[in-house]
Specification:
about 425 residues, alpha+beta, eight-stranded mixed beta sheet, three-stranded antiparallel beta sheet, 9 helices, 13 strands, about 20% strand
C-alpha cells in the first residue's frame, strides 16, 4: 500500500487500486494502480460543494468568450497551419546557408515558439481532464466530489491556456515593441483646453511612473494661466510601450465648469494626443542632406539662456516638409538630439500610416484608427464620468482616473482586449476556406 499525504487530504479509506494519483494536494490526490488498493480519507470533502459552486460561477462567465472563440474551426485550422510552419522552420534552419534567410527563419521560430509551447501544454491538460472526468463515475461519492473540484480547476487552467493562445494569434504591429514619442496639443476651448491639456500630460507622466517607464520631456510650451499649448515626451521601457499606449491617440473631450466661469455654465473643450512609435536606426534611415537645421534664440518665460544664446533648434525634413523644434535645454547639441528624436518619430509614423493604408482591409476595426480628428474619450466632471466611445466603457471617479494609475490602466487594458478580439475576428474571416 502506498501512503499519499497532503495538507488537505489524508489517506485512510479503501479505494480500488485502479485509481492513480494526480498530485499531492486536494486538487491532485487522485492516483491509481490496477489490482491493488490504497486508503483515502477525504477530510476536506465537506468543503467541496461550496468550492465547486464558486469555481463554477467564475468559470462560466469566461468560458463563453475564450472557449467559444477557440472552438471555431477557423481557429483550429490556423493553429495547425502555424504548428506546421514552426516544424518546417526548424527543419530549414539547419539547411539554409544565407545569413538573411537564416535571420528571418530564426525570427519566425522565436515568434511561433510561445504559441506552439502553449498548444502542447493545452493538449496535455486536455488529456489530464479526460482522466479526471473518468473519476466522476466512481462508486465512491467522496471521490466524485473531489474529482469535480479537480475537474473545474483543470478547466480553469485550460481556459487560461486558450486565452494565451488567442492573444498570441492576434497579428502584431511591426512597431509594437518600440518605445514612443507622445505629443499633446490643446484643441478647441481656449485657456480651458490648455488647462485640460496640462492635466492630461501630467496624467500620462504619472502613468509612465506607475508602469516604471522612462519619461523624458522633449518639448513644452505652457500657456499664460498655467495650461499647456503643446508638449512632447519620449516614453521608453523594457517591453512593448507602444503596444500598450497606441490606442490613447485621438481627441479627448472634457466637459466641466471652468474656474473662470461665473455663471456656472458647462463648457466643452478638447485636446489631442498623438502616439508615435520611436524607430530604431534600422527601421528608418534619414539622409542628412534632406535636413535643414536652423538655430535661434530660445523664447519663453525666464531662464538665463532665454534670448541670450542660439540654443533653440529647428529641423526641417525637406522632402516632406515635416518640422521639429526644441528649446528645452541650454545646450544646442542636446536640443538638436531631442528635435531629431521627435522628427524621426513623426516621419516613421507617416511611413507606417502609408503602409497601413495600402494593406488595410475593407472592414476597419470598430475601435477606430486613433486619428487626431476622432473623438475617443469624454471626461464629464459634473457626472464624475469617463466614457471611452470606441468600446462604450464608462468608469467613474475622474480624480482617481487622472492620477494615472489603476483606473487608467484598466481602461487601456479593456481597449487592448477589445481591439485584439476585433483583429482576430478579421484575421479569421480572411482565412481561405479549406
Amino acid at each position: 500500500m502506498t501512503l499519499f499525504r497532503s495538507v488537505r487530504a489524508i489517506i485512510t479509506t479503501v479505494v480500488p487500486r485502479r485509481w492513480i494519483t494526480v498530485s499531492l494536494s486536494l486538487r491532485q490526490c487522485l492516483v491509481t494502480h490496477r489490482n491493488r488498493h490504497v486508503s483515502v480519507n477525504l477530510r476536506s470533502a465537506v468543503h467541496l460543494p461550496g468550492q465547486v459552486a464558486r469555481l463554477s460561477r467564475a468559470f462560466n462567465s469566461d468560458v463563453l468568450a475564450a472557449g467559444h472563440l477557440f472552438a471555431k474551426d477557423s481557429v483550429q485550422d490556423l493553429l495547425k497551419k502555424l504548428e506546421t510552419e514552426y516544424s518546417d522552420c526548424l527543419e530549414q534552419v539547419n539547411t539554409v546557408n544565407q545569413d538573411a534567410q537564416l535571420k528571418v527563419l530564426r525570427r519566425r521560430i522565436a515568434d511561433l515558439s510561445p504559441l506552439v509551447t502553449y498548444f502542447k501544454q493545452l493538449r496535455g491538460k486536455e488529456q489530464e481532464l479526460q482522466e479526471i472526468e473518468a473519476l466522476l463515475h466512481d462508486d465512491n461519492p467522496e471521490l466524485r466530489k473531489l474529482a469535480e473540484a479537480e475537474r473545474l480547476e483543470c478547466q480553469h487552467q485550460l481556459l487560461d491556456l486558450k486565452k494565451k493562445i488567442i492573444t498570441l494569434l492576434v497579428p502584431a504591429h511591426e512597431a509594437d515593441d518600440s518605445d514612443l514619442v507622445m505629443e499633446v496639443t490643446a484643441g478647441i476651448g481656449g485657456q480651458e483646453a490648455m488647462l485640460f491639456t496640462a492635466e492630461m500630460f501630467d496624467m500620462y507622466q504619472s502613468y509612465a511612473s506607475f508602469k516604471k517607464w522612462s519619461f523624458e520631456i522633449l518639448e513644452y510650451y505652457p500657456s499664460e494661466l498655467g495650461g499647456l499649448r503643446h508638449a512632447a515626451a519620449s516614453i521608453s521601457g523594457q517591453h512593448e510601450v507602444y503596444k500598450h499606449l497606441k490606442y490613447e491617440g485621438g481627441v479627448h473631450r472634457v466637459q466641466r465648469v471652468p474656474k473662470t466661469e461665473k455663471q456656472g455654465r458647462i463648457h466643452t473643450s478638447t485636446m489631442t494626443v498623438a502616439i508615435l512609435p520611436q524607430p530604431s536606426e534600422i527601421d528608418l534611415t534619414i539622409n542628412p542632406k534632406d535636413l535643414r537645421i536652423e538655430t535661434k534664440r530660445a523664447s519663453g518665460a525666464g531662464g538665463q539662456h532665454v534670448n541670450t544664446t542660439d540654443s533653440a533648434v529647428r529641423i526641417v525634413h525637406i522632402p516632406t516638409g515635416v518640422v521639429s523644434e526644441c528649446q528645452q535645454e541650454r545646450s544646442q547639441i542636446k536640443n538638436k538630439e531631442k528635435a531629431l528624436k521627435v522628427l524621426r518619430a513623426r516621419l516613421y509614423s507617416m511611413k507606417l500610416e502609408e503602409e497601413m493604408n495600402k494593406r488595410q482591409s475593407v472592414r476597419k476595426m470598430q475601435v477606430g484608427t486613433k486619428g487626431r480628428s476622432e473623438k475617443i474619450r469624454t471626461y464629464n466632471f459634473p457626472q464624475d464620468r469617463i466614457t471611452d466611445h470606441r468600446v462604450n466603457k464608462t468608469v467613474h471617479d475622474i480624480k482617481g482616473f487622472l492620477l494615472g494609475e489603476d483606473l487608467l490602466d484598466e481602461m487601456i487594458q479593456s481597449i487592448r482586449e477589445y481591439t485584439d478580439h476585433e483583429m482576430l475576428k478579421e484575421l479569421l474571416e480572411n482565412i481561405p476556406a479549406q
